[in-house]
Design a protein that fits this description.
- The protein is built from twelve helices and 15 strands.
- It is an alpha/beta fold and 370 residues long.
- The strands form two sheets. It has a nine-stranded mixed beta sheet.
- The chain is globular and about 55 Å long.
- The relative contact order is 0.16.
- The structure holds nicotinamide-adenine-dinucleotide (NAD).
- It comes from Chitinophaga oryziterrae.
Length: 370
Amino acid sequence: MNSRRDFLQKITASAIALTILPRYSMAMPEQPYDGPVLRVAIMGLGSYGSRVAEAMQSCKKAKLVGVISGTPSKIKDWQSKYSIPEKNCYNYETFDKIKDNPDIDAVYVITPNALHHPHVIRAAQAGKHVICEKPMALNAKEGQEMINACKKANVKLLVGYRMHFEPHTLEIIRMRKAGEFGKILFFQGLCGFKIGDPNQWRLNKQLAGGGSLMDIGIYALNGSRYMIGEDPIWVTAQETKTDHNLFKPGVDETIQFQMGFPGGAVASCLSTYNMNNLDRFFLNGEKGFAELQPSTGYGPIKGRTNKGELNQPIVVHQTLQMEEMSAIILQGKQPVVPVDGEEALKDLKVIDAIYEAVKSGNKITLKLAE
Ligand code: NAD
């Protein structure tokens, strides 16, 4: 029988040990590492880029070596904070020259959603592996173009699905695969927060591509797929808008969506920019259930099943993600849940269908494999 220990070993003992928060770290001695290191340049030095950079300080398999930014003062700050040499610093005009830089293996695109498509394609054309933040693109057409560009350039394309490496999440997936919940019948995903500053790009249709669904609802959608372990075959959706000043046309405030899965399970999800304290997954099967709350925030993630509390390590998501992505890119490691462009494209196809369902009121049939 698969024990928790076996499972954790599979997701790389050293990576977990590295990312455990300080209160747990005493028990886990650091493992020496002399394998390949992914040398990463971060594009977009904003709030999430800063979080990833900080987390990468604890990585053994990945190292922050370069930056791409339109703000010279930020480049200077990052150079001194992370010892980044001048030759590895670019702005959006000089960026294509990165192709002549042999000291950078991958570009991590952490810019506003609408810029992922052009930025990923440029990075691929410069011959660099690409890690792109979620949502990979604004729609499935763009996503497919990004996949094609990376294929053509023979570089890997991964998407920042940090929960795909999170131990509580993976333990539930292990239990579901082992049949411990029986036939899966239902998933509920609640994702939301109350958005603040009305001038931010997240409320600008041009840069965000939509509203809460693109930003936070994608966690419930993606979560339904990895928790149930299947891809949905239909979706219905409804939008509610209470504040037409803050949420302009094309920027959704709240969307509820429902999906059907081939094995008979259904999912009910809520995505909103107008409610706090919404970060919860619930999975129900014939023999048992699992719940995570918080389910996708930066942590600590907490969860339980019908068998009791989930007692998994508390990790820094971005450190573990970068350790694992290094192994995927440089060593061909297969993650438990995929994090590649094709995986992200499936989410974009569902997002396209959700917006179509909101507009038309119709139930939309999904064919994610095509
Ligand atoms: P942010 O506004 O804090 O940072 C965006 C950065 O992009 C800024 O440094 C900004 O200067 C730069 N930028 C470059 N060109 C720009 C332009 N034309 N307009 C505006 N900014 C421009 O945003 P963020 O919260 O860091 O989000 C960036 C991306 O990361 C988004 O795609 C978001 O969905 C994603 N994200 C992912 C997670 C996660 O947990 N995986 C969390 C937060 C954000």
